């Protein structure tokens, strides 16, 4: 049987963090839906934090607290140690995690992988209205995933 990790949004950070740890478990593929580079960069870019970023202490109370708890979910570092196929999915109209963070993580992973064909980013046009939460509703998604995994 195959082991596939699929993380969405915050779960992409959890998945990458877990996979970067030595476990002895062979993971066959990873799918990251609406991924980000790390929590600090996400918090600095996601629209919901815009109002809070202007207040003194935002970095200290929020971002530094995450750092002290080692909760940065540094996917931009963790993808560098992956070797299994990595598929990233991101909607152009994602209002929670900006597409630019998905692109940045993709470029980091692509640079780290020896076999560039193992890393793929699929973006979904704004006209589909998938936003942050509805990529899984796209009827084409099963075929896209099967194609990436070479499942007939």
TrEMBL record:
Top-level taxon of the source organism: Eukaryota
A GO molecular-function annotation: phosphatidylcholine lysophospholipase activity
Entries under SUPFAM superfamilies matching the protein: alpha/beta-Hydrolases (SSF53474)
GO biological process: monoacylglycerol catabolic process; phosphatidylserine catabolic process
One cellular component (GO) term of this entry: endoplasmic reticulum membrane
Residues in coiled coil: none
InterPro entries: AB_hydrolase_fold
Name of this chain's protein: Monoacylglycerol lipase ABHD12
Organism: Phalacrocorax carbo
Organism ancestry: Eukaryota, Metazoa, Chordata, Craniata, Vertebrata
